[in-house]
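pipeline stage [seq->struct] | target=Regulatory protein | organism=Streptomyces albiflavescens | residues=479
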Amino acid sequence: MTERPAQRTPNRQLAALIAEAGFSNAGLARRVDQLGLEHGLDLRYDKTSVTRWLRGQQPRGTTPALIAEVFTRRLGRRLTAQDLGLDACAPVYAGLEFAATPEEAVDIVSGLWRKDSGSHAELRKIAFTPAGLVVPSRDWLIGRADDRVGRGDPGPSRIPAQGRPAVPRQRSQTERGPGQKVTGGDIAALRSVGELFRALDHAYGGGHARQALVRYLEHEAEPMLRGAYGEQTGRRLFAAAADLTRLAGWTSYDIAAHGLAQRYFVQALRLSQAAGDRAYGSYVLVTMSRQAVYLGHGREAVQLARVAQQGVGSAVPPVVQALLHSVEARGHGVLGEVRACTASLVRAERALETSRSGDEVPYWARFFDEAQLADEFGHCHRDLSQFRAAAQHAERSLQLRAPGYARSRLFCRVVLASARLGLGELDQACQLAAEAAGQAVEMRSVRAIEYVRDFERRLEPYKDAAPVRGYRDKVAALA
């Protein structure tokens, strides 16, 4: 006698959320299919599929996570597969969550570090999703500061009666164990490492030492975050971890691992909240906005810049205000919004003019000076096809920019080449671009190569001209 299959239990949780979201079965299926496309998945769900889920059938693979993300976007609150009455699985959106607590934030970001430092090449192929920016930026803007970040703090070292300092029990002189006390020296080391990797990134590109940075985060920063520290030390520790995580995202962005970079930025934003550093959070949003500009998502770039401005108000130095306005201008430039772009550039220029040499500027904003502002102007005017102004500002930026910012100088040289091309100065444009191409092959930066390729696409109408043939010969010789 054959056994009858076990009867499935209707999924009332999913039914209730479908009703709350106002979805039809077909509408839910369509949204899941669309979200799957963002991740390179060719899904073919329909209203019958949803009916099966409601009857208790469990969807396979990453589909539960996709369904949960559809509801997260619709309802504006983070929902998991379990909230929908579905089996848990490795979420396709892992890393885009804005954690509810500092402990959860450590779990999420350390999971990213571990996967990225291993042989998980697929992590670097994850797609960027503009919709994944909405919930984290909103949660940062309206979220309250964490009441407590300290954990297991053993307090100050006690001196035994014999007068000799107690020796803490630990794994070895050099290896940090879980629960070990975090010191000021530990945090100073994190800061120093950040400066080192930042300098390498500026000079040689994000691909040069990105993997070493991620491994450092896994093997040094994670044990510290899981160590013992009081409130003040904990805030400083989370601030240092946020900075290194943002840098890991920046270097990932530079090698075109855009989905991975997006996840690092979201986690850096959450760590900055645990640090109680609102201003640094605005800088992370600036970084996210820059990535959106680069990928052509101008509307999202503008929104991120405005969230950053709203989040800090006037409580930041003029240099930071100038940075925030200039990034908004870049978003308007990509969208071709001349008036809005010009207005943001004017606000950035006025803010920088009010800064004084004695102002206390955060270390992460010190790069923003006249050279950087001129660079922002140059990019915006190029995007708006205002080539004479673009050339003037790009030339000024190159005159002022320090040699250590090699990649930024390369970008600016390509902007200048594009402006010269737009003005009909073909010889000069090709000469500038050839110099940039020579620098790009010396760097491990996909962005540097893409800047050069963007110029080459602009060259297409002139492909038979002698200067263009000469340019192509030079580039071929470099290859």
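stage status: PASS
auto-comment: Residues 1-6, 157-174 have pLDDT under 50 and may be disordered. Residues 99-150+178-276 form one domain.
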